[in-house]
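Q: What does the predicted 3D structure of Multidrug export protein MepA look like?
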Amino acid sequence: MNCTKNADMNEQLAHAKILPLLIKLTIPVTIAQLVNALYSIVDRMYIGHMPGIGTKALTGIGLTFPIIMIIAAFSCLPGMGGAPLASIALGEGDLKKAQRYLNNALSMLIFISFIITVGCMLTLKPILIAFGANEVTLPYAISFLSIYLIGTLFVEIAMGLNPFINTQGFTGIGTITIVIGAILNIILDPIFIYVLNLGIAGAAIATVISQMISAIWVIKFLCSKKSILRLNLHDMKPDFEIIRSICALGVSPFTFRVNESIVVIILNRLLIQYGGVLSDLHIASMAILSSVGQIFFMPLIGIISGAQPILSYNMGAKNYPRLRETIYHARVLSISCAVIMWLAMMLVPNIICQLFTSDNDLIGLTSITMRIMFSTVLVLGMQMVNQNAFVAMGNTWCSFLYGIMRKLLLLVPLAFILPHIFGVWGIYMAEAISNLITTFVTYIAFTRYINNLKVRFKA
Protein backbone atom coordinates (compact mmCIF):
# COMPACT_ATOMS: atom_id res chain seq x y z
CA MET A 1 0.00 0.00 0.00
CA ASN A 2 2.77 2.42 0.99
CA CYS A 3 4.77 1.54 -2.12
CA THR A 4 1.73 2.39 -4.22
CA LYS A 5 1.41 5.81 -2.57
CA ASN A 6 5.12 6.48 -3.02
CA ALA A 7 4.96 5.55 -6.70
CA ASP A 8 1.89 7.74 -7.15
CA MET A 9 3.66 10.77 -5.65
CA ASN A 10 6.76 10.21 -7.78
CA GLU A 11 4.49 9.86 -10.82
CA GLN A 12 2.88 13.23 -10.04
CA LEU A 13 6.25 14.95 -9.62
CA ALA A 14 7.41 13.49 -12.92
CA HIS A 15 4.30 13.79 -15.12
CA ALA A 16 1.36 15.70 -13.58
CA LYS A 17 0.35 19.08 -15.03
CA ILE A 18 2.63 21.66 -13.44
CA LEU A 19 0.22 24.45 -12.43
CA PRO A 20 -2.40 22.26 -10.68
CA LEU A 21 0.39 20.28 -8.99
CA LEU A 22 2.19 23.45 -7.91
CA ILE A 23 -1.01 24.92 -6.48
CA LYS A 24 -1.78 21.63 -4.74
CA LEU A 25 1.65 21.61 -3.10
CA THR A 26 1.79 25.36 -2.48
CA ILE A 27 -1.54 26.07 -0.77
CA PRO A 28 -1.03 23.94 2.35
CA VAL A 29 2.60 25.05 2.70
CA THR A 30 1.61 28.71 2.29
CA ILE A 31 -1.07 28.35 4.94
CA ALA A 32 1.49 26.66 7.17
CA GLN A 33 4.01 29.47 6.62
CA LEU A 34 1.44 32.15 7.39
CA VAL A 35 0.30 30.34 10.50
CA ASN A 36 3.93 29.73 11.48
CA ALA A 37 4.55 33.47 11.46
CA LEU A 38 1.86 33.76 14.11
CA TYR A 39 4.19 32.17 16.69
CA SER A 40 6.11 35.40 17.22
CA ILE A 41 3.61 37.82 15.70
CA VAL A 42 0.76 36.86 18.03
CA ASP A 43 3.14 37.24 20.97
CA ARG A 44 3.92 40.77 19.81
CA MET A 45 0.28 41.61 19.27
CA TYR A 46 -0.69 40.59 22.80
CA ILE A 47 2.42 42.10 24.37
CA GLY A 48 2.11 45.38 22.43
CA HIS A 49 -1.39 45.87 23.84
CA MET A 50 -0.44 45.20 27.49
CA PRO A 51 -1.80 48.14 29.54
CA GLY A 52 0.84 50.67 30.59
CA ILE A 53 3.93 48.76 29.45
CA GLY A 54 2.98 47.62 25.94
CA THR A 55 5.43 49.77 23.96
CA LYS A 56 8.36 49.11 26.34
CA ALA A 57 7.66 45.37 26.36
CA LEU A 58 7.36 45.37 22.54
CA THR A 59 10.75 47.08 22.33
CA GLY A 60 12.21 44.37 24.59
CA ILE A 61 10.73 41.64 22.40
CA GLY A 62 12.15 43.39 19.33
CA LEU A 63 15.63 43.01 20.83
CA THR A 64 15.16 39.24 21.22
CA PHE A 65 14.08 38.85 17.59
CA PRO A 66 17.63 38.41 16.18
CA ILE A 67 18.34 35.52 18.55
CA ILE A 68 15.02 33.84 17.74
CA MET A 69 15.79 34.23 14.03
CA ILE A 70 19.24 32.67 14.48
CA ILE A 71 17.67 29.69 16.28
CA ALA A 72 15.24 29.26 13.38
CA ALA A 73 18.06 29.75 10.86
CA PHE A 74 20.00 26.80 12.24
CA SER A 75 17.02 24.53 11.53
CA CYS A 76 17.38 25.49 7.85
CA LEU A 77 20.93 24.16 7.65
CA PRO A 78 19.90 20.45 7.94
CA GLY A 79 16.29 20.94 6.84
CA MET A 80 16.50 23.12 3.73
CA GLY A 81 19.89 21.63 2.90
CA GLY A 82 18.93 17.98 3.33
CA ALA A 83 15.36 17.91 2.00
CA PRO A 84 16.16 18.95 -1.62
CA LEU A 85 19.04 16.45 -1.70
CA ALA A 86 16.74 13.71 -0.40
CA SER A 87 14.23 14.60 -3.12
CA ILE A 88 16.94 14.56 -5.81
CA ALA A 89 17.99 11.12 -4.54
CA LEU A 90 14.37 9.95 -4.81
CA GLY A 91 14.27 11.28 -8.38
CA GLU A 92 17.37 9.19 -9.08
CA GLY A 93 15.68 6.14 -7.52
CA ASP A 94 18.05 5.92 -4.52
CA LEU A 95 15.75 5.58 -1.47
CA LYS A 96 18.55 4.40 0.84
CA LYS A 97 20.60 7.53 0.21
CA ALA A 98 17.51 9.72 0.68
CA GLN A 99 16.91 8.17 4.10
CA ARG A 100 20.48 8.89 5.16
CA TYR A 101 19.90 12.57 4.40
CA LEU A 102 16.84 12.59 6.69
CA ASN A 103 18.41 10.77 9.61
CA ASN A 104 21.70 12.64 9.51
CA ALA A 105 19.68 15.85 9.50
CA LEU A 106 18.03 14.76 12.77
CA SER A 107 21.44 14.05 14.33
CA MET A 108 22.59 17.52 13.28
CA LEU A 109 19.47 19.16 14.74
CA ILE A 110 19.96 17.51 18.14
CA PHE A 111 23.61 18.59 18.28
CA ILE A 112 22.80 22.14 17.15
CA SER A 113 20.03 22.46 19.76
CA PHE A 114 22.37 21.55 22.60
CA ILE A 115 25.06 24.02 21.52
CA ILE A 116 22.60 26.90 21.04
CA THR A 117 20.77 26.35 24.34
CA VAL A 118 23.90 26.12 26.48
CA GLY A 119 25.73 28.91 24.66
CA CYS A 120 22.85 31.40 24.83
CA MET A 121 21.96 30.62 28.44
CA LEU A 122 25.54 31.36 29.53
CA THR A 123 25.81 34.64 27.63
CA LEU A 124 22.22 35.91 27.52
CA LYS A 125 22.58 39.24 29.32
CA PRO A 126 25.75 40.48 27.55
CA ILE A 127 24.32 39.44 24.19
CA LEU A 128 21.12 41.44 24.72
CA ILE A 129 23.07 44.47 25.93
CA ALA A 130 25.27 44.25 22.84
CA PHE A 131 22.07 44.16 20.74
CA GLY A 132 20.92 47.46 22.25
CA ALA A 133 19.03 46.57 25.43
CA ASN A 134 19.04 49.15 28.24
CA GLU A 135 17.90 49.18 31.86
CA VAL A 136 14.28 49.65 30.76
CA THR A 137 14.03 47.01 28.02
CA LEU A 138 16.52 44.39 29.32
CA PRO A 139 14.19 42.82 31.95
CA TYR A 140 11.48 42.24 29.33
CA ALA A 141 13.95 40.70 26.88
CA ILE A 142 15.48 38.36 29.49
CA SER A 143 12.07 37.34 30.84
CA PHE A 144 10.95 36.17 27.39
CA LEU A 145 14.16 34.71 25.98
CA SER A 146 15.32 32.73 29.03
CA ILE A 147 12.14 30.66 28.81
CA TYR A 148 12.05 30.50 25.00
CA LEU A 149 15.53 28.93 24.93
CA ILE A 150 14.25 25.92 26.90
CA GLY A 151 12.26 24.93 23.82
CA THR A 152 15.16 25.20 21.34
CA LEU A 153 15.16 21.46 20.60
CA PHE A 154 11.44 21.56 19.77
CA VAL A 155 11.96 24.51 17.40
CA GLU A 156 14.84 22.80 15.60
CA ILE A 157 13.03 19.48 15.17
CA ALA A 158 9.70 20.95 14.06
CA MET A 159 11.23 23.42 11.59
CA GLY A 160 14.19 21.29 10.53
CA LEU A 161 12.36 18.02 9.80
CA ASN A 162 9.17 19.45 8.34
CA PRO A 163 10.86 20.13 4.94
CA PHE A 164 11.45 16.36 4.67
CA ILE A 165 7.68 15.88 4.91
CA ASN A 166 6.96 18.57 2.31
CA THR A 167 9.65 17.35 -0.09
CA GLN A 168 7.90 13.96 -0.31
CA GLY A 169 4.77 15.77 -1.50
CA PHE A 170 2.90 15.43 1.82
CA THR A 171 2.40 19.16 2.15
CA GLY A 172 -0.94 18.69 3.93
CA ILE A 173 0.84 16.84 6.74
CA GLY A 174 3.50 19.55 6.77
CA THR A 175 0.78 22.15 7.12
CA ILE A 176 -0.70 20.42 10.14
CA THR A 177 2.73 20.47 11.80
CA ILE A 178 2.69 24.25 11.83
CA VAL A 179 -1.04 24.82 12.27
CA ILE A 180 -1.46 22.75 15.42
CA GLY A 181 1.38 24.57 17.15
CA ALA A 182 0.30 28.03 16.03
CA ILE A 183 -3.36 27.56 16.96
CA LEU A 184 -2.34 26.24 20.37
CA ASN A 185 -0.08 29.29 20.80
CA ILE A 186 -2.96 31.64 19.94
CA ILE A 187 -5.16 29.92 22.53
CA LEU A 188 -2.53 29.73 25.28
CA ASP A 189 -1.10 33.26 24.90
CA PRO A 190 -4.00 35.20 26.48
CA ILE A 191 -4.40 32.52 29.16
CA PHE A 192 -0.78 32.71 30.31
CA ILE A 193 -0.34 36.46 29.73
CA TYR A 194 -3.60 37.81 31.16
CA VAL A 195 -5.57 35.10 33.00
CA LEU A 196 -2.57 33.68 34.87
CA ASN A 197 -1.00 37.16 34.96
CA LEU A 198 2.43 35.94 33.83
CA GLY A 199 2.92 38.78 31.36
CA ILE A 200 5.79 38.46 28.89
CA ALA A 201 7.00 35.22 30.53
CA GLY A 202 3.56 33.72 29.85
CA ALA A 203 3.96 34.42 26.13
CA ALA A 204 7.25 32.47 26.14
CA ILE A 205 5.73 29.52 28.02
CA ALA A 206 2.84 29.34 25.55
CA THR A 207 5.29 29.33 22.65
CA VAL A 208 7.45 26.54 24.10
CA ILE A 209 4.44 24.29 24.73
CA SER A 210 3.15 24.89 21.20
CA GLN A 211 6.51 24.11 19.61
CA MET A 212 6.79 20.90 21.62
CA ILE A 213 3.47 19.65 20.22
CA SER A 214 4.59 20.45 16.67
CA ALA A 215 7.85 18.56 17.17
CA ILE A 216 6.02 15.49 18.47
CA TRP A 217 3.75 15.54 15.42
CA VAL A 218 6.71 15.65 12.99
CA ILE A 219 8.55 12.80 14.70
CA LYS A 220 5.41 10.66 14.81
CA PHE A 221 4.76 11.05 11.07
CA LEU A 222 8.35 10.42 10.00
CA CYS A 223 8.35 7.20 12.04
CA SER A 224 5.09 6.00 10.49
CA LYS A 225 4.47 3.74 7.49
CA LYS A 226 2.81 6.64 5.65
CA SER A 227 6.15 8.38 5.15
CA ILE A 228 8.39 7.48 2.19
CA LEU A 229 11.42 8.57 4.23
CA ARG A 230 11.57 7.22 7.79
CA LEU A 231 13.56 7.94 10.90
CA ASN A 232 15.69 5.10 12.24
CA LEU A 233 18.62 4.83 14.64
CA HIS A 234 20.93 3.08 12.16
CA ASP A 235 20.92 5.92 9.62
CA MET A 236 21.38 8.54 12.37
CA LYS A 237 25.03 7.52 12.63
CA PRO A 238 26.95 10.54 11.29
CA ASP A 239 27.98 10.16 7.66
CA PHE A 240 30.34 13.07 7.12
CA GLU A 241 30.01 13.06 3.35
CA ILE A 242 26.23 13.33 3.73
CA ILE A 243 26.61 16.04 6.39
CA ARG A 244 29.07 17.96 4.20
CA SER A 245 26.67 17.99 1.24
CA ILE A 246 23.75 18.99 3.49
CA CYS A 247 25.73 21.90 4.93
CA ALA A 248 26.99 22.98 1.50
CA LEU A 249 23.45 23.34 0.16
CA GLY A 250 21.81 24.42 3.42
CA VAL A 251 24.22 27.29 3.91
CA SER A 252 22.16 29.49 1.54
CA PRO A 253 18.78 29.38 3.36
CA PHE A 254 20.70 29.39 6.65
CA THR A 255 22.62 32.48 5.59
CA PHE A 256 19.46 34.14 4.32
CA ARG A 257 17.87 33.89 7.77
CA VAL A 258 21.04 34.75 9.66
CA ASN A 259 21.34 37.77 7.40
CA GLU A 260 17.94 38.88 8.64
CA SER A 261 19.13 38.54 12.23
CA ILE A 262 22.41 40.36 11.67
CA VAL A 263 20.63 43.13 9.82
CA VAL A 264 18.10 43.61 12.64
CA ILE A 265 20.97 43.88 15.16
CA ILE A 266 22.82 46.43 13.02
CA LEU A 267 19.68 48.42 12.24
CA ASN A 268 18.72 48.55 15.92
CA ARG A 269 22.17 49.90 16.80
CA LEU A 270 21.94 52.49 14.02
CA LEU A 271 18.45 53.49 15.17
CA ILE A 272 19.84 54.10 18.65
CA GLN A 273 22.64 56.18 17.13
CA TYR A 274 20.50 58.29 14.76
CA GLY A 275 17.08 58.12 16.41
CA GLY A 276 17.88 60.55 19.21
CA VAL A 277 15.18 60.82 21.88
CA LEU A 278 12.91 58.64 19.72
CA SER A 279 15.38 55.75 19.47
CA ASP A 280 13.29 53.35 21.62
CA LEU A 281 10.21 54.25 19.54
CA HIS A 282 12.17 53.50 16.35
CA ILE A 283 13.21 50.09 17.73
CA ALA A 284 9.58 49.33 18.56
CA SER A 285 8.70 50.43 15.02
CA MET A 286 11.36 48.09 13.62
CA ALA A 287 9.86 45.24 15.68
CA ILE A 288 6.52 45.85 13.97
CA LEU A 289 8.17 46.11 10.55
CA SER A 290 9.98 42.82 11.18
CA SER A 291 6.63 41.18 11.94
CA VAL A 292 5.07 42.65 8.81
CA GLY A 293 8.09 41.45 6.83
CA GLN A 294 7.53 37.95 8.18
CA ILE A 295 3.94 38.04 6.98
CA PHE A 296 5.07 39.30 3.57
CA PHE A 297 7.63 36.53 3.05
CA MET A 298 5.50 33.63 4.28
CA PRO A 299 3.35 33.24 1.11
CA LEU A 300 6.46 33.61 -1.06
CA ILE A 301 8.26 30.95 0.98
CA GLY A 302 5.16 28.78 0.67
CA ILE A 303 5.24 29.07 -3.12
CA ILE A 304 8.91 28.22 -3.45
CA SER A 305 8.50 25.40 -0.91
CA GLY A 306 5.68 24.01 -3.06
CA ALA A 307 7.88 24.28 -6.14
CA GLN A 308 10.90 22.69 -4.45
CA PRO A 309 9.93 19.00 -4.68
CA ILE A 310 8.97 19.44 -8.36
CA LEU A 311 12.24 21.23 -9.17
CA SER A 312 14.42 18.86 -7.14
CA TYR A 313 12.81 15.69 -8.50
CA ASN A 314 13.01 16.83 -12.11
CA MET A 315 16.55 18.11 -11.64
CA GLY A 316 17.46 14.57 -10.61
CA ALA A 317 15.50 13.24 -13.60
CA LYS A 318 17.17 15.83 -15.93
CA ASN A 319 13.76 16.95 -17.22
CA TYR A 320 14.42 20.51 -18.43
CA PRO A 321 10.94 21.33 -19.81
CA ARG A 322 9.32 20.62 -16.43
CA LEU A 323 11.96 22.68 -14.65
CA ARG A 324 11.31 25.64 -16.92
CA GLU A 325 7.53 25.40 -16.65
CA THR A 326 7.64 25.11 -12.86
CA ILE A 327 9.79 28.23 -12.59
CA TYR A 328 7.42 30.18 -14.85
CA HIS A 329 4.30 29.34 -12.84
CA ALA A 330 6.10 29.87 -9.51
CA ARG A 331 7.13 33.36 -10.68
CA VAL A 332 3.57 34.28 -11.68
CA LEU A 333 2.16 33.17 -8.32
CA SER A 334 4.96 34.78 -6.30
CA ILE A 335 4.86 38.13 -8.09
CA SER A 336 1.05 38.28 -7.79
CA CYS A 337 1.22 37.69 -4.03
CA ALA A 338 3.99 40.26 -3.61
CA VAL A 339 2.05 42.96 -5.45
CA ILE A 340 -1.11 42.41 -3.39
CA MET A 341 0.78 42.64 -0.09
CA TRP A 342 2.76 45.67 -1.29
CA LEU A 343 -0.48 47.51 -2.04
CA ALA A 344 -1.75 46.84 1.48
CA MET A 345 1.45 48.20 3.04
CA MET A 346 1.41 51.32 0.87
CA LEU A 347 -2.32 52.11 1.16
CA VAL A 348 -3.27 51.17 4.73
CA PRO A 349 -0.11 51.03 6.90
CA ASN A 350 -1.92 52.58 9.86
CA ILE A 351 -4.47 49.75 9.95
CA ILE A 352 -1.65 47.18 9.88
CA CYS A 353 0.13 48.99 12.74
CA GLN A 354 -3.00 48.95 14.90
CA LEU A 355 -2.80 45.16 15.01
CA PHE A 356 0.39 45.49 17.07
CA THR A 357 -0.10 48.58 19.20
CA SER A 358 -2.58 51.20 20.42
CA ASP A 359 0.18 53.80 20.93
CA ASN A 360 -0.68 56.65 18.55
CA ASP A 361 2.91 57.91 18.38
CA LEU A 362 4.16 54.45 17.40
CA ILE A 363 1.37 54.04 14.84
CA GLY A 364 2.20 57.41 13.28
CA LEU A 365 5.93 56.69 13.05
CA THR A 366 5.52 53.16 11.71
CA SER A 367 3.05 54.28 9.04
CA ILE A 368 5.88 56.43 7.64
CA THR A 369 8.70 53.92 8.07
CA MET A 370 6.63 51.11 6.53
CA ARG A 371 6.08 53.07 3.32
CA ILE A 372 9.79 53.89 3.08
CA MET A 373 11.22 50.47 3.96
CA PHE A 374 8.79 48.39 1.88
CA SER A 375 8.39 50.77 -1.08
CA THR A 376 10.10 48.36 -3.51
CA VAL A 377 9.35 45.05 -1.80
CA LEU A 378 7.04 43.92 -4.63
CA VAL A 379 10.07 43.01 -6.80
CA LEU A 380 10.99 40.26 -4.33
CA GLY A 381 8.29 38.08 -5.86
CA MET A 382 10.76 37.46 -8.68
CA GLN A 383 13.86 37.42 -6.47
CA MET A 384 12.58 34.74 -4.06
CA VAL A 385 11.79 32.27 -6.84
CA ASN A 386 15.14 32.72 -8.59
CA GLN A 387 17.23 32.55 -5.42
CA ASN A 388 15.47 29.49 -3.99
CA ALA A 389 15.38 27.65 -7.33
CA PHE A 390 19.18 27.56 -7.06
CA VAL A 391 18.74 25.76 -3.72
CA ALA A 392 16.09 23.34 -5.04
CA MET A 393 18.29 22.37 -7.98
CA GLY A 394 21.36 21.79 -5.81
CA ASN A 395 23.49 24.76 -6.97
CA THR A 396 25.51 25.41 -3.82
CA TRP A 397 27.61 28.38 -4.94
CA CYS A 398 24.85 30.49 -6.49
CA SER A 399 22.39 29.75 -3.67
CA PHE A 400 24.97 31.02 -1.17
CA LEU A 401 26.02 34.12 -3.13
CA TYR A 402 22.52 35.38 -3.80
CA GLY A 403 21.48 34.42 -0.28
CA ILE A 404 23.87 36.97 1.21
CA MET A 405 23.70 39.64 -1.49
CA ARG A 406 20.51 41.52 -0.57
CA LYS A 407 21.20 41.88 3.14
CA LEU A 408 24.92 41.61 3.88
CA LEU A 409 26.48 42.87 0.65
CA LEU A 410 24.03 45.68 -0.09
CA LEU A 411 21.65 46.63 2.71
CA VAL A 412 24.23 46.80 5.51
CA PRO A 413 26.68 49.12 3.67
CA LEU A 414 23.78 51.30 2.52
CA ALA A 415 22.41 51.47 6.08
CA PHE A 416 25.75 52.93 7.23
CA ILE A 417 26.06 55.38 4.34
CA LEU A 418 22.55 56.77 3.81
CA PRO A 419 21.94 58.16 7.35
CA HIS A 420 24.78 60.63 6.73
CA ILE A 421 22.61 62.09 3.95
CA PHE A 422 19.01 61.44 5.03
CA GLY A 423 19.32 61.01 8.79
CA VAL A 424 17.45 58.17 10.50
CA TRP A 425 15.19 57.74 7.43
CA GLY A 426 18.20 56.56 5.41
CA ILE A 427 18.26 53.39 7.54
CA TYR A 428 14.84 52.44 6.20
CA MET A 429 15.70 53.51 2.65
CA ALA A 430 18.60 51.03 2.54
CA GLU A 431 16.20 48.08 2.37
CA ALA A 432 14.25 49.56 -0.54
CA ILE A 433 17.37 50.18 -2.65
CA SER A 434 18.92 46.77 -1.95
CA ASN A 435 15.72 45.03 -3.10
CA LEU A 436 15.95 46.57 -6.57
CA ILE A 437 19.65 45.87 -7.13
CA THR A 438 19.53 42.25 -5.90
CA THR A 439 16.49 41.34 -7.97
CA PHE A 440 18.07 42.68 -11.16
CA VAL A 441 21.43 40.91 -10.64
CA THR A 442 19.88 37.59 -9.60
CA TYR A 443 17.52 37.57 -12.59
CA ILE A 444 20.44 37.90 -15.02
CA ALA A 445 22.45 35.17 -13.27
CA PHE A 446 19.52 32.76 -13.04
CA THR A 447 18.60 33.25 -16.70
CA ARG A 448 22.13 32.24 -17.71
CA TYR A 449 22.03 29.24 -15.37
CA ILE A 450 18.73 27.87 -16.66
CA ASN A 451 19.88 28.34 -20.28
CA ASN A 452 23.03 26.34 -19.51
CA LEU A 453 20.88 23.56 -18.07
CA LYS A 454 18.99 23.38 -21.35
CA VAL A 455 22.25 22.72 -23.17
CA ARG A 456 23.51 20.26 -20.56
CA PHE A 457 20.30 18.21 -20.57
CA LYS A 458 20.03 18.54 -24.39
CA ALA A 459 16.42 19.63 -24.02
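A (community wiki): The C-alpha coordinates above were generated from the sequence. Residues 54-91 form the longest helix (38 residues). The chain has one domain: 2-456.
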